[in-house]
Amino acid sequence: MDRLQAMRIFVKVAETESFAETARHMRLSAPAVTRAVAALEELIGARLFVRTTRSVKMTEAGARYHEDCRRILSDIAEAEAAAGGSYATPTGTLAVTASVLFGQMYVLPIVTDYLDRYPAMRARTFFIDRPVNIVEEGIDVAVRIGHLPDSGFTAIRVGTVRRVVCGAPAYFDRHGVPTTPADLKHHRIAASTSAWASPEWRFARDQRVTIDPVLQCNNEAAIATAKAGWGLTRVLHYQIGPALLAGELRIVLGDYEEPPLPIHVLHPEGRHAPAKVRAFVDLAVTRLRENRLLN
């Protein structure tokens, strides 16, 4: 048995939760996939999967072995890449993650420019409003907003974002401008239902206001409602950057804003990062730091 190939097959089965899908992806026969996993189970002396007619799930032993296999295969790929020269020239596929709106507005243009610069490269983006496990999900680079926990990853600060209250000039003409957080109780609010949203809006100097929103919706809809002059909303300021520049929205209560949140470009490779990661990180850091809406 080719131990490394069997480990690759095992990892793919764990990812796809399907022997048949693994066989198709790796261009193997279904019996070959089954034999490889069975050989590993015999070698280890433990079952790696619980198999039914409808699902394939890792056992506890399988989950531990999966983590070790991913690390071993990654180390081997890194050694082969270094010997083959890919640490000098970007090659392969780059996986990048960010939150949905930030990714679409600010990260995606960097990704497409990167692909224009390096035609041999491919890229996958994971724009999602939840924490992504970089190692388990095979992510090369993450752009994160907020304070980072200790992780041992390389993190480069590239800017900041603020939580801001905003509305359209037409709304303020009709209803006046709030001058203190307490004034928000007298204004119509469209509240975002984003992951960090809360009915208690916190401000500097430990001021807090519990809002009673007339409308609750996602960020994009809340911003659209504010631009239409219907009411006020509170979002991260990068989300309304184009609308601010166009004069469609105006930020209020700036003197009461909480301290800004940092933006970091994060990757797990450290000084051993291959050329594809180093080239993207260099480009992303430069572009994001140059963006005046993020500073």
UniProtKB/TrEMBL annotation:
Molecular function terms from GO: DNA binding
Keyword line: DNA-binding, Transcription, Transcription regulation
Domain (HTH lysR-type) ranges: 1-59
Entry keyword Membrane: no
InterPro entries in alphabetical order: LysR-type_TF_proteobact-type, LysR_HTH_N, LysR_subst-bd, WH-like_DNA-bd_sf, WH_DNA-bd_sf
The keyword Transcription is annotated on this UniProt entry: yes
Family stated for the protein in its record: Belongs to the LysR transcriptional regulatory family.
Protein name: DNA-binding transcriptional LysR family regulator
